[in-house]
Amino acid sequence: MTVLPDDGLELAGEFPDVPHEQWQRLVAGVLRRSGKDVEGAAAEEALSTALEGGLRTRPLYTAHDSAPEPGLPGFAPFVRGARAEGNTVGGWDVRQRHTVADRDAVLGDLENGVTSLWLTVGEGGIAVPDLGRVLDGVYLDLAPVVLDAGRDAEPAARELLRVYEERGVARDAARGNLGADPLGHEARTGQRCDTAPAAELARLCAGEYPGLRALTVDALPYHEAGGSAAQELGCSLATGVAYLRELAGAGLDVEQACGQLEFRYAATADQFLTIAKLRAARRLWARVAEVCGAPRAGAQLQHVVTSPVMMTRRDPWVNMLRSTIATLAAGAGGADAVTVLPFDHALGLPDAFARRIARNTSTILIEESHLARVIDPAGGSWYVERLTDELAHAGWEFFQRIERLGGMPAALRSGDLERDLAETWQARAGLLAKRREPITGVSEFPFLAEKPVVRASAPEPRSGGLPRVRRDEAYEALRARSDAHLAATGSRPRVFLAALGPAAAHTARLTFASNLFQAGGIEPVMDGTFEESGATEAVLCSSDALYAEQAEAAVRDLKAAGARHVFLAGRPGEYPGVDAYVFAGCDAVAVLSATLDRMGVVS
């Protein structure tokens, strides 16, 4: 936390203390000029930002915003990092994901900055017998290997161990994770897996392979099903506790069992929420270990993956920016290993350029930005410490809910967990539909003339359990309708933007309407007359003052020219002849879907 210098110099010492109430009065004055008449705490609340899961970010944090002492790096409760040295020695582990048996791609990654491999094996990935061929030429005593094999976890693990033996890798030199995750597989596919093989692998690793872990606690299925950060934390805790119970039943003590788990979380472009989530995850797991009687075993090993949910298929180049912010947040949050999904991940099999950009994202942040040289750089921030505390409480509350349902297996099989996640996603989908949560290149500033990025098909991911959602899915469906119409007719559906008055009066709403309709694949036409546009619908764009004078006549003229439906860009009012209004905060998805329906653009 913030500490005064030893020499007693207080930079703010000559300035009088300002009461919080005085700041609130100033805020109220500013809001009053914008039409909001609120006072005191209500004024501050008006500037607060709602986060997922009921959390809120306030506009001002001070030393009075208390949070528990985060401790020191490498010491319980491990908020500031699981290791005393953090990632300062060489940065975080740069872990690249591979889903196909491409040995050249694997070696290319390792020769250019990647430090460990994450291999999808079995269903939806590399065939188990091909594992040795894919790893041919890999220095297995230097590059850790992490498996993700679903129901094939045991044969894949045995094959990897066989490869280690065949290549002469000493058992104490093997590094990585065998990746058994029975509950994660059930969440992905709906298929129950026997936990006994995972427990046996854990016993083997604990006894003979000190550098290998046997199980992964993967929270990505819950993130990808639309869960909030708090729900992701709660699910990971419940899964981890379920595995501790299984391993204890197999004869491992708590310290050994904790040492067999690696936790996997998502990093999003909301950098502060991601930082707080990773810090809260370590605190919560430390608490679990403490309650189980092994406080020194509570240092959580974290593998963080840039969020698949945030990746877009349209204008995929923007994904590079999203991933950079997410990677920064993962590093600043203290992740031990980071996987940057290539920007074309949502389009199919990533190409060599996309993989290069992905691995270089971490390299630049580590080697050029020196992000790893400071342990827990966000620590001490009143905002981050408070957000970490609030998120930890919310995650613990959701964990307790799962335990009350009978634990993670029962919560998955009863459908209660799926309903909770669906409810969270439904609320978020509403924000996306209203563009309260904007998606650059999709719901905001779309580019209809962009050249599609085409990739080879990737292996079909495991499915059948929890759904996989994407932020762009509603808009993607609209754009797909427009693309089909373009292929069938040679042109996109069009809307005519009718500007009233000078540029100063209409530019803002003209730009707004253009962006809105392009988000649904509808081409805006601004030149010429309505008859020349080829459109069947129109949008009036101007100022409120000009609407009062000219809107009625303009609507009458447009309908006389053949417009079947006339929108007005602005808040709903009483303008004769106007059929609908488009404005900031309207349900863009509903408006665009209905517009395409009227235009005869089939679903």
UniProtKB/TrEMBL annotation:
It holds the Pfam family MM_CoA_mutase. Gene3D superfamilies: 1.10.196.20, Cobalamin-binding domain, Methylmalonyl-CoA mutase. Its EC number is 5.4.99.2. It comes from the Bacteria. Keywords: Cobalamin, Cobalt, Isomerase. Its cofactor is adenosylcob(III)alamin. Heterodimer of an alpha and a beta chain. Belongs to the methylmalonyl-CoA mutase family. This is methylmalonyl-CoA mutase. It comes from Streptomyces massasporeus. The lineage of its organism: Bacteria, Bacillati, Actinomycetota, Actinomycetes, Kitasatosporales.
